[in-house]
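Retro notes (design track)

What went well: tokenization of the new backbones is finally stable.
What didn't: we kept losing track of which sequence belonged to which structure.
Fix going forward: every design gets posted as structure first, then sequence, in one message. First example under the new rule, 582 residues:
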């Protein structure tokens, strides 16, 4: 029940309203059912009479009902008792409707809040943590674990509701015969305890489901991202066999869960039947209780045990799902511990330059950059070239503040980047990655990312600067044309120009291109370089490439190799060690 207590503490007001409504529903039903005893007394003991006979009033419940009607000056006739019974059941139905409506809203809210917690925590993490996490691990948490966590809350509330009903029924039954009620509760406890083994098996099956779903979806997501080379090499069957094993194991876990659920359902009925057959014999033959009392008592005791059984089944469903909640929440807490700490408060202005002074960076013990000094003047078009793994993207990550130097300093004008308000600085940057990721939406949405503050004129201006306006304007619906998940019929160069427009639409002061043209053929790459060259002076451009296509379009060029940067002369392109004044 730790999960349920945790969620009730998180949503105290909503949970309290739900539980109070369920409690009143149980009270209404219990009060209505208590009218059945004098009703049966009239029907069995005094069939021609209109009120409860004096000799029939033996139990505490009958005395309480008789006293209640005497206090309000009314005679408990058949019609009155039936009216009270029906009204009580109607009141119970209304209260249950209110409670179930609230529970339904809360189930959706729990899943939504958990997903938002995960998103916020994940997006706020350090970049070094983020890039080493498998995508499938978090997509599984967002999709399946959040839903199963909400289901756990649903079944937990239902468990409490059943227990509340059982308490109300128990009070009514105790007023009928406390001995029979205690015996029934004892027998019920024995039956429920005997079936607890099935609950334990269900819990284990639920934990196994959580582990297998997490593992399977992580593998599936990563495999789908690299399916092309696998198919090209005819090795997709390797991933297929792994996923088949995982899926088969998941199926076995589901079978165990189904067996536990069905076994509990199958065993509860015969156990209760045996018990009540024996109890009915004892009540009528040994205790010689009146038939009306026995019928009501049997009815109430059946209700008690049925409700306790329902509580156990709901509890079983809850324990199947609860492992998903703890798995998801562990990811949220893990991400929160890896929160990106930024202590800078100075507002950046970027009036002169960005420069590196003796910057070194390493991943654990492997150095990527060694005492690098670079200068990127404002308004310039600079390029860093070098082989893959030389540290080019690391320089970009240092400029954007995603990484921090192990040694040395990155300066924005005369202010260390560590002292700058990093979010404000990042809003001054336009970033174009190597992957041309386009949304399955219009050109407008792809450029603005749905931000309503950008006008059509802003989008047109960005598309013109990216050299994309002409072909977009020729599309059937212009900026309202659908791009498609893979860019529709657009070429690779056209798709890349739209991503450049996306980076330009918010009018950044610094435009970064991280291997943005590496997937294009030389002609398309040259076209984009020419387009970017026309932006020289309007904003500062920093391009990263392992090719030489940018050299003719840029003002400054650096070669990075084995963690060491060299300045390239514009014409001779001879390598020279870089100094901070380069």
């Amino acid at each position: 029940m730790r999960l349920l207590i945790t969620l009730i503490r998180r949503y105290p007001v909503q949970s309290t309203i739900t539980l109070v409504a369920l409690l009143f529903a149980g009270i209404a039903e219990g009060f209505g059912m208590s009218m059945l005893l004098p009703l049966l007394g009239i029907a069995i003991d005094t069939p021609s009479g209109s009120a409860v006979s004096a000799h029939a009033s033996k139990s505490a419940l009958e005395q309480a009902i008789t006293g209640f009607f005497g206090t309000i000056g009314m005679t408990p006739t058949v019609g009155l008792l039936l009216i009270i019974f029906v009204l009580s059941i109607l009141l119970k139905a209304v209260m249950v409707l209110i409670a179930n409506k609230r529970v339904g809203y809360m189930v959706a809210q729990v899943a939504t809040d958990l997903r938002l917690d995960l998103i916020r925590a994940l997006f706020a993490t350090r970049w070094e943590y983020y890039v080493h996490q498998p995508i499938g691990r978090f997509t599984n948490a967002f999709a399946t674990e959040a839903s199963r966590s909400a289901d756990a809350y649903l079944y937990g509330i239902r468990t409490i509701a059943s227990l509340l009903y059982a308490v109300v029924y128990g009070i009514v039954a105790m007023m009928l015969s406390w001995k029979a009620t205690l015996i029934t509760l004892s027998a019920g406890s024995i039956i429920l305890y005997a079936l607890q083994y099935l609950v334990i098996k269900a819990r284990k099956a639920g934990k196994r489901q959580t582990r297998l779903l997490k593992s399977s979806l992580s593998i599936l997501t990563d495999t789908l991202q690299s399916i092309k080379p696998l198919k090209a090499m005819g090795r997709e069957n390797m991933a297929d066999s792994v996923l088949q094993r995982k899926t088969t194991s998941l199926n076995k876990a589901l079978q165990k869960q189904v067996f536990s659920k069905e076994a509990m359902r199958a065993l509860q009925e015969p156990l209760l039947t045996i018990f009540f057959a024996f109890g009915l014999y004892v009540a009528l033959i040994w205790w010689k209780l009146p038939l009306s009392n026995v019928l009501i008592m049997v009815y109430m005791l059946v209700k008690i045990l049925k409700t306790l059984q329902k509580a156990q089944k709901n509890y079983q469903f809850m324990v199947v799902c609860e492992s998903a909640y703890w798995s998801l929440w562990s990811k949220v807490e893990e991400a929160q511990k890896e929160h990106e700490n930024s202590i800078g408060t100075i507002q950046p202005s970027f009036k002169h330059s960005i420069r590196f002074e003796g910057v070194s960076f390493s991943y654990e013990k492997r150095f990527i950059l060694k005492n690098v000094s670079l200068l990127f003047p404002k308004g310039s078009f600079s390029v860093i070239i070098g082989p893959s793994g030389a540290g080019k993207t690391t320089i970009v990550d240092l400029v954007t503040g995603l990484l921090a130097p192990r040694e040395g300093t990155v300066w924005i004008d005369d202010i260390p980047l560590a002292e700058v308000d990093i979010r404000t600085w990042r809003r001054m940057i336009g970033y174009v990655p190597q992957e041309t990721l386009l949304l399955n939406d219009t050109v407008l949405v792809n450029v603005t990312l749905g931000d309503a503050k950008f006008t059509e004129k802003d989008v047109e201006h960005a598309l013109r600067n990216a050299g994309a306006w002409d072909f977009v304007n020729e599309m059937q619906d212009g900026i309202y044309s659908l791009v498609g998940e893979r860019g529709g019929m657009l070429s690779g160069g056209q798709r890349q120009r739209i991503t450049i427009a996306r980076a330009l639409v918010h009018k950044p002061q610094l435009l970064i291109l991280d291997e943005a043209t590496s997937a294009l053929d030389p002609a398309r790459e040259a076209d984009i370089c020419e387009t970017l060259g026309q932006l020289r002076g309007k904003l500062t451009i920093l391009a990263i490439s392992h090719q030489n296509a940018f050299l003719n379009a840029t003002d400054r060029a650096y070669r990075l190799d084995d963690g060491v940067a060299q300045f390239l002369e514009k014409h001779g392109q001879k390598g020279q060690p870089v100094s901070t004044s380069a």
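Added context from the reviewer: The first strand starts at residue 353 and ends at 363.
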